[in-house]
Every structure is written in structure tokens, then in C-alpha cells.
């Protein structure tokens, strides 16, 4: 079987280009305005996620398992947007379309690792809500800061290993023809489609990674909320049901913003025009990182109270 012969067991030299070319949009005028728009989205994302992390770090009352996960979500959003947007803006606002082979692999690794962590952080938050609602009397013993940190550390390890596997297999490919990547960034599927040797291991990896990082987390979150709905259905008081459900609204909003567009785009990706695919992927990658901190500030009472107290303290200190 020749499945991994190109990667293992043979002394084969691979043809690696000195650079790739990121083509971006095709035939659309005034796209620099779109990149300027993405720049402002990035600034809001950085400010919002930094504010959420600062509030959680400074308020000792928020050092709970739930907010450990929220802090990590904000960190992943900040790192994800920072790994993607500055390079995209440098490429297309300043016409630096050429990216070296090694830089492209690093670009791919960091983008996909942090995007993967956004989905996995939502799994951690769904686990927290599930335990809080199904086992309210035992929540503090079942979900601790240590157990939440262990779960998040496992997710980071999973994201890094999964992305390293995909990027590592790309290094076993030879590129003899085109080096043009029809995207804003170094997209895994578009890179292995350019290879002129056996790319079947990368094709298989390209199929399983979205299942592992996107579909499987979504299934876990969906199952957790089915369990939550079943538990709440047995609560006699409507007021108690609504009170418990309100603790999930911020998480549900973030889940919807992240997963619904992502699942639709990945489902019809091959049928989309290049320009439509690029716009969809760029907005799906960057908009959740901007909206997540806004949602958690507006819909989470504890963060709103802590933020108000922090602002009041700063005002008193200044005046």
C-alpha cells in the first residue's frame, strides 16, 4: 500500500517552492476598503478581548471554572485574530503577495490552531453549564479550577497535534506547477491541491480535521444542551427554568455565531465562487472574535458588575 510511501520509508527529495503567492479576490474593485473594514473589526476584537481578560484577571470573584474558560476563549480569540488579520492586511493593503514556504507553513499552523481552540473552548463552556444545571449541589466539587485548566490544557494539546499533523503532511508534498493560493491566507486544502505528487494522506487529513475540530465539538455541545433541556423540563417552576436558562444565553449566542456560519461554509465550500468563499471565510474567522467579548459583557451580569466597578475605580483614581 502506497498511502504513506511518500512520507515514510524512502529517501525522496521533495520539490518545495521558495514562496507561495496569495491571490486574494479576483476582479473586484475597491477591495482595499474591505481590508480597512477588517482592520477596524480587528481593533474592536483586540480591545474587547483584552478588556474581558483584564476584568477576569483583576476581579478575584471571577476566578471560577466558568471564567477560566471564558478567559481562555478571549485569549484564543485574541491570538486567532492577531495570527490572521495583520498578515492579511500587510499582504493586500501593501501588495506583499509573496510569502515564503516556511512562513506559509507557520501562518497555516497558528491560524488553524487558534481557530480550532475557539471551537474547543465552547465545548469546555458547555461542560461547565451542563454540570452547573444537572448537578447544582455538587457543581463546586465536580468542576474546579484545576479540572477546568486540565480540560483546557488537553484541548490545546489536541489542537496543536491536529494542526501539526496537517502541516507536517504538507511538507511531504512536491509543488511543480502553480504556487498561487486562491485565498487570503495559507489554506490547508488549497495548498495540498497544488501538489504534483501523491497528496492522498493530506486529502484524508483535510477530511478528518474539520470533523474532529468542528463537527465533533458541535455534536458534543448539542448533546449537552439536550441534556440541559431535559433537566430543565423536570423543574416545576417556570421562573426557576428561566433563571437557569439565562445562565446559558451568552454561551448559546457565541455557539450560534461561531458554528452556524462555519458549518454552512464548510458544507458548501467546494461549490462557492472564490470571491464568495474568501469573504465568507474571512468574516467567519474574524467576526466571532469581535462579537464574543461584546456578548459576554452584555449578557453576563458578573462581568458587567466587575467592569462597572473597574471603570468606577479608575475614575476615582484619576479625579
Q: Can you walk through the features of this model?
A:
By secondary structure, this protein is an all-alpha fold. Helices cover 73% and strands 3% of the residues. A 3-stranded mixed beta sheet has the order 2-1-3. Helix 2 packs antiparallel against helix 10 and helix 7 packs antiparallel against helix 9. The longest helix has 34 residues. It is globular and about 65 Å long. The N terminus is likely disordered.
Helix content: over 70%
Poorly predicted runs: 1-9
Q: What summary fits the major beta sheet? A: 3 strands, mixed
Number of DSSP strand runs: 3
Shape: globular
- Average predicted confidence as pLDDT: 90
Order of helices and strands: EHHEHHHEHHHHHH
Separation of the first and last Cα atoms: 75 Å
Helix tally?
11
β-strand percent reads under 5%
List the topology elements:
Layout: E1 19-22, H1 31-58, H2 65-93, E2 98-100, H3 101-134, H4 139-142, H5 145-170, E3 180-181, H6 188-192, H7 200-233, H8 238-246, H9 249-268, H10 274-299, H11 301-318
Parallel strand pairs: 1-3
Antiparallel strand pairs: 1-2
Helix pairs in contact: 1-2, 1-10, 2-3, 2-5, 2-10, 3-5, 3-7, 3-9, 5-7, 7-9, 9-10, 10-11
Amino acid at each position: 500500500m502506497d498511502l504513506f510511501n511518500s512520507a515514510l520509508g524512502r529517501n525522496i527529495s521533495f520539490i518545495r517552492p521558495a514562496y507561495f503567492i496569495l491571490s486574494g479576490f479576483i476582479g473586484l474593485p475597491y477591495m482595499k476598503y474591505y481590508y480597512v473594514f477588517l482592520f477596524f473589526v480587528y481593533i474592536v476584537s483586540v480591545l474587547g478581548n483584552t478588556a474581558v481578560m483584564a476584568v477576569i484577571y483583576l476581579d478575584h470573584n471571577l476566578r471560577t471554572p466558568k471564567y477560566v474558560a471564558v478567559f481562555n476563549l478571549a485569549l484564543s480569540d485574541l491570538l486567532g485574530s492577531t495570527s490572521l488579520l495583520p498578515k492579511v492586511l500587510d499582504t493586500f493593503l501593501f501588495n506583499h503577495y509573496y510569502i515564503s514556504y516556511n512562513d506559509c507553513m507557520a501562518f497555516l499552523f497558528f491560524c488553524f490552531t487558534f481557530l480550532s481552540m475557539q471551537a474547543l473552548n465552547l465545548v469546555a463552556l458547555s461542560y461547565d453549564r451542563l454540570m452547573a444545571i444537572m448537578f447544582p449541589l455538587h457543581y463546586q466539587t465536580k468542576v474546579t479550577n484545576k479540572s477546568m485548566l486540565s480540560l483546557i490544557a488537553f484541548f490545546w494539546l489536541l489542537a496543536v497535534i491536529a494542526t501539526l499533523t496537517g502541516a507536517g503532511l504538507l511538507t511531504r508534498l512536491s509543488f511543480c506547477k502553480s504556487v498561487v493560493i486562491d485565498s487570503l491566507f495559507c489554506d490547508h486544502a488549497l495548498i495540498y491541491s497544488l501538489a504534483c505528487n501523491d497528496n492522498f494522506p493530506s486529502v484524508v487529513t483535510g477530511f478528518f480535521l474539520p470533523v474532529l475540530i468542528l463537527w465533533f465539538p458541535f455534536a458534543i455541545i448539542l448533546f449537552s444542551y439536550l441534556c440541559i433541556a431535559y433537566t430543565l423540563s423536570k423543574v416545576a417552576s417556570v421562573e426557576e427554568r428561566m433563571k437557569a436558562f439565562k445562565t446559558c444565553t451568552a454561551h448559546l449566542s457565541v455557539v450560534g455565531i461561531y458554528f452556524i456560519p462555519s458549518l454552512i461554509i464548510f458544507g458548501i465550500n467546494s461549490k462557492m465562487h472564490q470571491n464568495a468563499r474568501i469573504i465568507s471565510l474571512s468574516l467567519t474567522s474574524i467576526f466571532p472574535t469581535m462579537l464574543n467579548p461584546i456578548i459576554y459583557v452584555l449578557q453576563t451580569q458578573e462581568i458587567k458588575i466587575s467592569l462597572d466597578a473597574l471603570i468606577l475605580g479608575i475614575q476615582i483614581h484619576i479625579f
